[in-house]
Amino acid sequence: MVSSQGDSYYIICEDLFKIYKIADLEVVALRGLDLKVKLGELMAIVGVSGSGKTTLLNILGGLDIPTAGKVIVGKRDLLKMSSRDLVTYRQRNVGFVWQQVGGNLIPYLSAFQNVELPLILLGWPQRKRRRRAQEMLEAVGLAARLHYRPDRLSGGEQQRVAIAVALANNPPLLLADEPSGELDSQTAESIFDVFRSLNEAYGVTIVIVTHDIRITDKVDRVVTIRDGRTSLETIREPRFRQPDAGPRRTLDEFVVLDKAGRLQLPRDYIDKLNLKERVRVLLADDHIAVWPEESQKREDR
């Protein structure tokens, strides 16, 4: 079980840039992205295709290197690690769950053998690794499917095995890329519930990349990425309405303000007010007001 350290941050990304060069073209996937994730947090990253979600996940997992910026995971500076150190980091500190359900597993091994395999490769003693494989399959609700091969399991069950494999060696970080992408809505809901259960049971930090808006009700925080930057945060927090009433979890939305003082307004806000190149702003005692430029309003009439 991963120990908790209060509000300490396990992941810190500052001013991240990632530029891919394709022939004579440059594609900017991340543009000065900032992100902090607390130890033991269960959070999701959402955004349209091409927004930079998977690029960010690959960087956090040590599978890719940013062009510029800072990436700290568990007090490790990933940009200062050697190739060998990154291999060790991926083996011991990060669990991965990919979208392709069948691609997460070895088809000719049983569920139990799939979970046991990474522990064999890491040199765990037989008794210890078998006990751990049993524990993890029970934790994801597959105690009755230990010796089933993937072709005898449903898509949701295969993804549960994949999650058990990812957490077999008890890594402090779990990264999931579109884990519900190939599943029906009911099965996807159950997979998100598995992530919640494991987060609460083991204290593992979980970052999920997804298009699935249903994730909002299953995680503590949702960060929206737009144009390679974090633009919006949705946080679920307990609120007490009356002294004798229990807490009720509510959603609060925040626009992210970066170090340069830039923020991205939600697209529906921009469309609602028909905001274009320039806007007027006014500083009040406790808020900032934003509205269309006067010339802009006249053009729209």
UniProtKB/TrEMBL annotation:
Entries under Pfam families matching the protein: ABC_tran, MraZ
Gene Ontology molecular-function annotations: ATP binding; ATP hydrolysis activity; transmembrane transporter activity
PROSITE patterns, alphabetized: ABC_TRANSPORTER_1, ABC_TRANSPORTER_2
InterPro entries recorded: AAA+_ATPase, ABC_transporter-like_ATP-bd, ABC_transporter-like_CS, MacB-like_ATP-bd, MraZ_dom, P-loop_NTPase
Gene3D superfamilies: P-loop containing nucleotide triphosphate hydrolases (3.40.50.300)
Keywords from the named record: ATP-binding, Nucleotide-binding, Transport
SMART domains: AAA
Domain ABC transporter: 11-252
Gene Ontology cellular component list: membrane protein complex
Statement: the UniProt record of this protein carries the keyword Transport: yes
SUPFAM superfamilies listed in its UniProt record: P-loop containing nucleoside triphosphate hydrolases
Family designation: Belongs to the ABC transporter superfamily.
Protein name: ABC transporter domain-containing protein
Lineage of source species: unclassified sequences, metagenomes, ecological metagenomes
